[in-house]
Amino acid sequence: MIAAEDRLSAEDIIKAEIITKLEIPFFSSYVQAGFPSPAENWLEKVCDLNDLCIDTPEATYFVRVISDSMIGDRIDAGDILVVDSSKVPADGKIVVVWLNGDHAVKRIKYAGKMVVLHSSNPKYLPIYVHPEQDDFKILGVVTNVIFKPM
Question: Which residues belong to the active site?
Answer without folding.
Answer: 69, 106
